[in-house]
Design a protein that fits this description.
The complex is a heterodimer. Chain A is of the alpha/beta class. In chain A, about 40% of the residues lie in helices and about 15% in strands. Chain A has a domain of about 250 residues: Amidase signature (AS) domain (Amidase signature (AS) enzymes). Chain B has a domain of about 40 residues: Histone, subunit A (Orthogonal Bundle), CATH 1.10.20. Helices cover about 35% and strands about 5% of the residues of chain B. Classes of the chains: A alpha/beta, B mainly alpha.
C-alpha cells in the first residue's frame, strides 16, 4: 500500500515494526505534493524542514525503543487561518501576505506534542469567508475527484489535501459549515466539535461566537484520534470549555443498536433526489444496524440562513477592524493622512467577499438598524438553538444531508453571493446552536461524474463520542459507499 | 430596491473602506438582495424571546476567570516583527496631531 494512503493506526503499526521510518513517510508525502499539488493546489506554502525535523525526532524514539506518542510521524496539513510559529499565516488574504506568526495555535502545539509532522498550510476562502475556496486571495483549489469543480469551502485546501492523499489528516475551521461542507464535497470525514470543545487560541478570528477548529480525515477513527488530542480546556482561550475529554476512540466500537435517530423533515423538503436518495439509503443502513429512526421537526430551520449571515457578518466587521496597516500586514504605500491610509490599505488588502461581509456587518450593527437586524437575529438564534434542545429530548442523534448540492463547477456561482449563502442551509443551524456535527461520505451521485455526497450527523452539546460512534458504525457497515 | 448608493458609501465610510465607483455599483444590488432576504426574520414574533449572544452550557466553574498573575509575553522585537513600519521600538504611524 502507498505510504500516502495509510491511516494513523497503519502508520503507527509500520513505525513500531520498523517497516518504515517517519522521515520516509514525510518524504513520501512531500514527493506526492510535488507531483500532484500543481493541479489540486491544496497548499499555499509548505514547511518541509519543520516536518522533517519532527520526523527525525520520532525516528530517534523508535531507534531508542521509547514509547511513541499517539500521532507519531503523522503528516498533517493546517488551514492557513491557524497560526504556525515562524511560518507564514496568510488567511489566504493579500492583507496578510507576508505575516509570520509569532506563536503556534494551541491545536498545532498539541498535534506536534503528540508527534504529528506539520507539512504545510492549506488554501481557503479569504478569512474563511466562502463555500468554495474561490475567494482565496491567491488562487482557487480544485476538487481531487474532478479538477473542473470546487472542493467546497472555506476549508477547501485542507479537505482536498486529505482527499488527494497529500496529508493523512488536516485541521480546518468551521464557522457555518466550513469543515463539514468541503468534507462532503471531497468525499472525506470532517468534524466540528461542540462550541468550546477545541481551543481557538491561534485561530484568526472571523465570527467569535461561531468559530471552531476541527479535523479532517479519510476515516472516522482518524478524526476521533485527532479530536482527542486537540480537545480540552486551554487557559489561553477563555471560551474553551472546562469539560473532561472522553476517550473517543474507545467509544467507537460501542453498539448502536437501539439508538434513536431523528430525521428532520425540514432538511428534506425541496432536496434534489440526487442528494436525497443517498441520504435515505444512509438512514436505511443505520436502521438496518438496529437504530430506531424517528421523523422530527426543527421548525425554525427556514430562518437559519438569514440569522447566521446577520450574526457572522456583524462579528466579522468587528473582528476585521484590526487590519488597519499599523501593527501587521499590508499598508498602502500612498495616502494623504491616517484615515486615508486605513481606507486605502483595507480596500486594496481585502477581496470582494470580505468587503461585502464587512459592509453587511457594519450595516446591521449601525445606528437605527441594530434592533431590526442584529438583535432580531440573536433572538431567532435562541429559537433555533431551542429547536435542537427539544429534539434531543427524544433522539440521540440527528441525521441530515450536509450540502444540498454536490461539488459545482469553478466560477459557476461566484457572481451570486446570496445563492452561495443559501447552500449553507444544512450546516449553519448546528453552528448557531453550538452543537457538534460530523460529515461522512454517503455514496456518490447517480449521474456522471458521480460526485461524493455527504451525510451530516449532529448530537447534543459535548456528545461527540455518540456522534463518532454512529459515524464509525456507518463506515464499518459500508455506508461510505452506499449505492 | 431599498438601499441606495448613498447608503453604500456611508456604510463604507463607517467600515473604513474606500470603495471605487465600480464596487459601489456592483455591491448595491448584492447587498440589497441579501438585506431583503434577511427581513424574513420579521415573520417571527420574538417579543418574548431572550437574545442569544453566545453558546452557553453548564460547567463546573466559570472558566473565564484565572489567577491575576504576571506571565511572560512577546518580546519587543517579536511584537514589532510584522509591522509595516517601525522605528526605535515603536510602530510608525502617519501624523495624527497637526502642528500649529
Amino acid at each position: 500500500m502507498e505510504l500516502t494512503a495509510l491511516t494513523i493506526s497503519e502508520i503507527r503499526d509500520r513505525l513500531t515494526r520498523r517497516q518504515v521510518s517517519a522521515e520516509e513517510l514525510v518524504r513520501a508525502h512531500l514527493a506526492r505534493i510535488e507531483e500532484k499539488d500543481g493541479e489540486v493546489r491544496a497548499y499555499l506554502h509548505l514547511s518541509p524542514e519543520r516536518a522533517l525535523e519532527q520526523a527525525r525526532r520520532i525516528d530517534q524514539l523508535v531507534a531508542a525503543g521509547e514509547p511513541l506518542p499517539p500521532l507519531a510521524g503523522v503528516p498533517v496539513a493546517v488551514k492557513d487561518v491557524i497560526l504556525t510559529r515562524g511560518t507564514r499565516t496568510t488567511c489566504a488574504s493579500r492583507i496578510l501576505e507576508n505575516y509570520l506568526a509569532p506563536y503556534d495555535a494551541t491545536a498545532v502545539e498539541r498535534l506536534e506534542a503528540a508527534g504529528a509532522a506539520i507539512v504545510g498550510k492549506t488554501n481557503c476562502d479569504e478569512f474563511a469567508m466562502g463555500s468554495s475556496t474561490e475567494n482565496s486571495g491567491f488562487f482557487a483549489t480544485r476538487n481531487p475527484h474532478d479538477l473542473t469543480r470546487v472542493p467546497g469551502g472555506s476549508s477547501g485546501g485542507s479537505a482536498a489535501a486529505v482527499a488527494a492523499n497529500l496529508a493523512t489528516v488536516s485541521l480546518g475551521s468551521d464557522t457555518g459549515g466550513s469543515i463539514r461542507q468541503p468534507a462532503a464535497l471531497c468525499g472525506i470525514v470532517g468534524m466540528m466539535g461542540t462550541y468550546g470543545r477545541v481551543s481557538r487560541y491561534g485561530l484568526v478570528a472571523f465570527a467569535s461566537s461561531l468559530d471552531h477548529i476541527g479535523p479532517f480525515g479519510r476515516s472516522v477513527r482518524d478524526v476521533a484520534l485527532v479530536l482527542e488530542i486537540i480537545a480540552g480546556r486551554d487557559p489561553r482561550d477563555s471560551t474553551s470549555a472546562d469539560v473532561p475529554v472522553p476517550h473517543y476512540v474507545a467509544a467507537l466500537e460501542e453498539d448502536v443498536r437501539g439508538l434513536k435517530i431523528g430525521v428532520p423533515k425540514e432538511y428534506f423538503a425541496g432536496l434534489s433526489p440526487e442528494i436525497g436518495d443517498n441520504i435515505q439509503k444512509g438512514i436505511d443502513l443505520l436502521a438496518g444496524l438496529g437504530c430506531q429512526v424517528e421523523p422530527i421537526s426543527l421548525p425554525h430551520t427556514d430562518y437559519a440562513i438569514g440569522c447566521y449571515y446577520i450574526i457572522c457578518t456583524a462579528e466579522a466587521s468587528s473582528n476585521l477592524a484590526r487590519y488597519d496597516g499599523i501593527r501587521y500586514g499590508f499598508r498602502s504605500p500612498e495616502y494623504a493622512d491616517l484615515r486615508d491610509m486605513y481606507k486605502k490599505t483595507r480596500n486594496r488588502g481585502f477581496g470582494a467577499e470580505v468587503k461585502r461581509r464587512i459592509m453587511l456587518g457594519t450595516y446591521v450593527l449601525s445606528s437605527g438598524y441594530y434592533d431590526a437586524y442584529y438583535l432580531k437575529a440573536q433572538k431567532v438564534r435562541t429559537l433555533i438553538a431551542r429547536d435542537f434542545v427539544e429534539a434531543f429530548d427524544d433522539v440521540d442523534v440527528i441525521v441530515t444531508p450536509t450540502s444540498p448540492i454536490p461539488a459545482f463547477k469553478l466560477g459557476e456561482r461566484v457572481d451570486d453571493p446570496l445563492q452561495m449563502y443559501l447552500a449553507d442551509i444544512y450546516t449553519v443551524t448546528a453552528s448557531l446552536a453550538g452543537i457538534p456535527g460530523i460529515s461522512v461520505p454517503c455514496g456518490r451521485t447517480k449521474s456522471e461524474p458521480h460526485l461524493p455526497v455527504g451525510m451530516q450527523i449532529l448530537a447534543k452539546h459535548f456528545d461527540e463520542a455518540r456522534l463518532l460512534q454512529v459515524a464509525h458504525a456507518f463506515e464499518k457497515a459500508g455506508g461510505f459507499e452506499v449505492a | 430596491m431599498a438601499l441606495t448608493e448613498k447608503d453604500v458609501r456611508y456604510v463604507a465610510e463607517l467600515a473604513h473602506l474606500e470603495l471605487t465607483e465600480e464596487e459601489v455599483k456592483k455591491f448595491l444590488p448584492q447587498l440589497d438582495s441579501i438585506l431583503q432576504y434577511m427581513q424574513k426574520l420579521n415573520e417571527l414574533d420574538t417579543a418574548q424571546v431572550e437574545p442569544m449572544a453566545q453558546v452557553t452550557y453548564p460547567a463546573a466553574e466559570n472558566p473565564a476567570l484565572r489567577a491575576d498573575q504576571p506571565h511572560p509575553t512577546f518580546r519587543q522585537d517579536e511584537a514589532l516583527g510584522n509591522a509595516p513600519e517601525s522605528d526605535a521600538g515603536c510602530f510608525k504611524v502617519p501624523r495624527v496631531i497637526e502642528r500649529e
